[in-house]
């Protein structure tokens, strides 16, 4: 890798980490620790693509992006740990518990009631852990 490529990759990482410091710094460090011995590049990819290239785009603010991420993860129904992480991130960027619950409830019409119920259960756990219930 030449110097220009190295600088570009370093800047992407730094840019992504700045967003993660705002949204969910503690969780990315845990992810790095978990991936260290088997796939350390995967953690870097998470920082450099979604957080550097997507989250920093100008059209949507972080508050909206996190609500959209909560909606998508709720609808997927296959990523409960990541859903909890993004519910925490949504709270960290000034979404209210009510906005998060409403976002998850909206998914009942498009992803089904089981997905919405599981999403609400995840939110309840996060809210309890943060003394919001």
UniProtKB/TrEMBL annotation:
<dbReference type="InterPro" id="IPR003779">
    <property type="entry name" value="CMD-like"/>
</dbReference>
<dbReference type="InterPro" id="IPR029032">
    <property type="entry name" value="AhpD-like"/>
</dbReference>
<dbReference type="Pfam" id="PF02627">
    <property type="entry name" value="CMD"/>
</dbReference>
<dbReference type="InterPro" id="IPR052512">
    <property type="entry name" value="4CMD/NDH-1_regulator"/>
</dbReference>
<dbReference type="GO" id="GO:0051920">
    <property type="term" value="F:peroxiredoxin activity"/>
</dbReference>
<protein>
    <submittedName>
        <fullName>Carboxymuconolactone decarboxylase family protein</fullName>
    </submittedName>
</protein>
<feature type="domain" description="Carboxymuconolactone decarboxylase-like">
    <location>
        <begin position="40"/>
        <end position="125"/>
    </location>
</feature>
